[in-house]
């Protein structure tokens, strides 16, 4: 009986420690603050910005130069649990140099990352951007998925383009473990 209670106590302490050591950032893939990809780009290009910030208020993404010039890039409306993932265009009017991309709520800067901006790249002479892109949805999609496993889900629109998946919730497993431990303790107590 005492052995079962010790085991139950050890499991409870381990579970409580795991819960206490789990941070909110772990719930979103381990990111802290804000990530800007790529960290070096050209004026007129698009960058990906994602983050986990301690707010559920609207977040304003701002570029700030070392001279204090600011350019508002985007507004993220009411991000769930402070988590956001968006793409923003760096204006073609931004001068080359080191800029700071800031996530602000009001006058408060919640996160900041350096963004190196170079001159706008000139498009090549034979630019083919006007040509349509065809995504196969039939049998060709199955053949493509053998080469690229996420191709089938891309045509259906179910894939996460960032490559990240949602975290697995831990609490159902904790409830199951506690139920099993309780059942074992109850059976041992009943047999004693």
Automatic annotation (TrEMBL):
Q: Where is the signal peptide?
A: 1-27
Keywords attached to this Swiss-Prot or TrEMBL record, sorted alphabetically, are: Membrane, Signal, Transmembrane, Transmembrane helix
- Where exactly are the transmembrane stretches of this chain? 170-187
- Protein name (record): CopC domain-containing protein
Organism, scientific name: Intrasporangium oryzae NRRL B-24470
What lineage does the source organism belong to?
Bacteria, Bacillati, Actinomycetota, Actinomycetes, Micrococcales
